[in-house]
């Protein structure tokens, strides 16, 4: 792999995440519209303007919309960013590696997969520890350290949390 290939892979993963986020937003909006439509259909049924079949069809459309909204593949985005981080580190591009791992952690946090998020943030920090200080200053490794510190604090790991906040401030 070359530096350009890894960069291209990271850009591709980022574009996939943007696409997936747009699809999620569209599906959520669709569910909201279908919910309003179901309520309107139910109201019209209540006054005798529509049949039970109309209500059932509206319920089926809402159910399908909910299934589509739930059928997102963000874990694939986490895996893709993590793979980008591994490849970037292998070809000697620590800045891209730190960013990829931090992004993987951020998405994992959004998915509420805290253990996976913590592992991703730890990778970003590990790479930062072995990188030149000016490289680390350009990266989001301090943000990864703060996110991990926040996770530790939420779990009652106060000493680890303080240590990570101190580490983030010194990066």
User: How many strands appear in the DSSP assignment?
Assistant: 0
Q: How would a crystallographer describe the biggest sheet?
A: none
Low-confidence stretches: none
Silhouette: elongated
Number of helices: 8
Radius of gyration: 22 Å
Structural class: mainly alpha
- Averaging pLDDT over every residue, what do you get? 79
Structure description:
The protein is an all-alpha fold and 171 residues long. The protein has eight helices and no strands. 31% of the residues are buried. The mean pLDDT is 79.
How do the strands and helices of this protein lay out in sequence?
Blueprint: H1 3-46, H2 52-70, H3 74-90, H4 94-110, H5 114-129, H6 133-138, H7 141-154, H8 158-170
Helix pairs in contact: 1-2, 1-3, 3-4, 4-5, 4-7, 5-7, 7-8
Give me a quick take on this structure.
The protein is an all-alpha fold. It has helices at 3-46, 52-70, 74-90, 94-110, 114-129, 133-138, 141-154, 158-170. The protein is built from 8 helices and no strands.
Task: Name the descriptors.
171 residues, mainly alpha, 85% helix, elongated
